[in-house]
Structures are given as structure tokens and as C-alpha cells.
Amino acid sequence: MGAQLSKINLKLIELTTTDDLTLSSDTIVSSYGKEDINLFLPIKFTTDTKTSLILSDDDCQIFNYENKLIKQIRNHLSLLTNTTEQIAINDEIDHILMKDIYELITNQYQRAMKDIQHIFNTKEELHRTIKEKLDIDKNIDEFISTVPYATTRVEEEKKIEVATTTSKQQQVDVGFQKFLGFSLQMLTSVLLILIRSAEKNDPSIINQILTLANQFCEQIPIERLSSSILSPTTHNLLWKPLQPLTNYINELYLSEDQHVSNQSKVDSSATSTDEITTVFDDRLERTLNSQGQYAHLGSTGKFYCGGTLDGPQCSCCNGICGPTNGCNCSACMLLDVQKRVLSRGWLVNSDGASTRCSQVMPTTFYCGRQVMPDDGTSDGYCGPTNGPQCTACQRLNEQQNDRYGAIWTVRDDSSATSTDETTTVFDDRLERTLNSQGQYARLGSTGKFYCDGTLDGPQCSCCNGICGPTNGCNCSACMLLDVQKRALPRGWLVNSDGASARCSQVMPTTFYCGRKVMPDDGTSDGYCGPTNRSQCEACQRLSRQRRGRYKHIWIGQ
Hints:
Elements: H1 2-16, H2 25-29, H3 48-56, H4 59-81, H5 84-137, H6 153-201, H7 206-218, H8 232-239, H9 243-253, H10 258-263, E1 287-288, E2 294-297, E3 303-304, H11 330-339, E4 346-348, E5 354-357, E6 365-366, H12 391-399, H13 405-408, E7 433-434, E8 440-443, E9 449-450, H14 476-485, E10 492-494, E11 500-503, E12 511-512, H15 537-545
Antiparallel strand pairs: 1-2, 2-3, 4-5, 5-6, 7-8, 8-9, 10-11, 11-12
Helix pairs in contact: 1-5, 6-7, 6-8
């Protein structure tokens, strides 16, 4: 508004300083003669002629002369105040006030009213949500009044009566929930005893017992029993009794007895092997790193906290850990190693590929992917034993001692990594490997295994029917290699981008990878899931293939 008022002042100065506008007495009296200037002087200072004329006239003549003088003065003042230029100035001022300032004030007022209304709506919604949450989680018997004025005594008595009834009903509900939890625990214990007895005495009936367990788990309404819907107390009452059973099923799955392992297809929630004892979204959700900073998966599948990179400045980054791609700090690199269950000596390069040094080249990192240029200097693969490195592994070599030395260096401190390196085959995750169909498979550019054979299951619209050989979908035998080499729990798969993915408890048949790869169009927070909402394209393809091609790996039906 200040700018508009300044505009008015400048317009006044401009219009009053034009060459053709002169507001002076000479201009006004030019048409009346030189003697008219005396009309502005007292009568006693006029010339002798006029004095004698006035003095010789009677009172009526003097009065008429004064009226004439007053009328002439009014005409002169009217000329001064009603000039064309003055009218133009007033019109311009009115135009500026009505068009610019009035519209500006009107728009600001309307926006302010909308903001105020939004605040009131948000306040009412928050009040309602808090009231419902308190009623469910804490079983309160207090009445939260939304009326700002005092109510009558009769109304207060009615409220107390309703609150008392609600409290009693909630106590009954809590008791019933405890009874259900106890019943579920008893049934689970009996089922566990039967499975253990069958394993020792008669392994032939294990399949029948596990089938019954599978049918029991299929009847559990997972969507309505998730931790995001139930209160923590109710959630524990329902899921804690299942912990011994799920732990034992996990042991069966990892058992060296292949016959027993093949039978353990009980899916307690259509996801990972042990949802009760591990954090369900531990590999995909936002996580605190060792420096106390929250880290999230970027587009590369690596963890980033958005903080400052430690160690010497690298030439490939801007000194920031992520937040979407590139290098990460040592605390987030430790998360990468831990969440991927990598052995000592392994790291994750800036492309999101797991890497390690070979026994032939003990200080040179290789990821084993087919990402090298076809220029005749290599077979197209980064290592995995010797030879050229990809660009991402070259960067990792530069940072291995200064930034990631505490993670990569083999020391007695077992907390620096996630698994026991003595139990892992050195090249098991990167070298050419036989899949379950007897076909040799190697890592493609996505970090997935491909055998270059024919894709099994229904034909997908995204591929040419071939397993790889560099990217895209892979056959079920190579997908099994992906799951095994990455030590993924039951219910996890690897999408066509090479990202580990799983379904959530809220969406038990929809895969999410948790990466920040979604478009910033206002429909999501930029992440694929990881609990609900939008999927990336690679996870959408995986959801369509989970039954036709990968059902026996992702035992979800």
C-alpha cells in the first residue's frame, strides 16, 4: 500500500509542475484589468477617485459594491480550485485508490479469512482426533467438553452418567481383549508343542500341521490389527502370543534339513519371517544412525541423513550426506552395511551396490555388476576378482580409509559390521553362480542376478521374455538367488531396479522399496511407501508378478 501512496504523491507533483499550468493572481485577473487587483485590498487604501466615489455614495451603494467584490473573489477561488488539471489529478487519485489499493486490500482480506478458517478447521479436527485417541488408548472416563460455556446441572449429570457407562464398557472390552490374548497364547503353545513333537517323532505330518497353521494365520485380519490402528496395549495382547510360533517357523525355514525347510511355508502376516521379534520396516523405514540423526533411503537405495559428510572432502559431492543420492557419511554407511546383513569388509558404493575387495586385490573394491563399457578392455563386469572398476567403486576406493576405515577395516570389534565374516563365502554375492535351475547367473547393471534364459510364469508387458541379461525382470530361479545372496527374510523380493522390497502390514499384497524415487507432484512425500500410499514403477511390476512368477519365493497366498 505504501508503494501506491508514493505513486499518488509523485502524480500530484508531476501534474502541478507542468509548463502550461500557472496558478498566480496575474493569470486570474488578466481578463478584468489592472485595477481589479485592488479588490483584494481594504477600501481605505483605494485611489482618491474611488474613495471620493464611495464616500459620496449612500449606504446602499457601498453594500452593492461589497457584494460585487465578494462575488468576484468567489469566482477567482472557483477558478483556482476547479481547474482541468486539478480535476485530472483527483480522477487519477480515485483510479489508483480503487483499482490498485482497494483490490490489494480485498485480496489480502480474503486470504486472511481463508487462513483463519483453515486454522479453525484444523483445530476442530485435532480436537476430535485427540479425543478419539484418548478414548481408545487410555480408556479414559473423562468427558472432554467442546462447549465453551457452562452447562446446566441436568446436562452435567447426564454427562457423568454417560462417562460412567463408557468406562464400564471399556473395562469389559479390555477384559475381553485379555481373554482373547490368553486364548491365542494357549492355542499357539499347543500348536508349537505339536510341531516340535512331529519334528522329532513323525516328520511326515509336519506338512499337515503347518497347513493348519497357515489357515489359521490367513483368518487374521492383518489390515485391522496393524500397530497403526490398534493401541500398543491391544497390539501386544494380540501379537505377543504369536512370538514363539513365528520364532520356531523361522528356525524351520533356516534349518539345514531341506525336507523340513521346504515345508515351512506358514506366513503369519504375508511378509517377513519374523515380524514379531524384528522391526517390520527396519530395512526401509526412517532410522536413527549411530550419530543420532534420522536417515532415509535415497533413490540409490542407500541411507542418507542430509548432514555433513565426515572425513576429507571428496571431489564428487557437495559435502552433504545425500539426501537423495551420492556419497553418505560413515554413520549412514554403517546403516547400509547393517540393514543389508553384509559381512566384515563390505561397503555400499554410491550407486547403491554392495561391494568388497577381492583376495587378489585386497584394497580394490568391486561390485560385480555388468556396468563397464564394451571397449574391449574388460568383459563388461566390475571385477569381481580383478580388472577395471566402475566409477562408483573407484570413488569408494578413495574414501575407504579416511571416511569408512572404521567400518571396512577388519578388527576385533564385531559391532562395526552386522554378521560374522567367517561364515560367509568371500565371493558368494558377486561371482557367477548356479541358480536352482542349473543355469549360471551373474549380476546385471541393476545388481540383480540374470541367467539370460527364458522368463517363467505369465508373460509380463515390461520385458522381452528373457531373464536379463543386464537389467529388467529375472526368472524365479534368479530371483531366489537375489533373496538368498542378500539374506532377505521370507516375504521379501528384489524389484527390477535392484531394490529390496516387501509388503507392509497395512498393505499385505502391495510391494514397497522405500526409496525416494517418486515424482514431487504433491501426491506423495517422494518415497515409495514404505507402509502405504504410492508405489514406484518397479514395485508395481513386482506386485503384478508376485503370484504368477515368484509365488513359491514370496509365500503370500
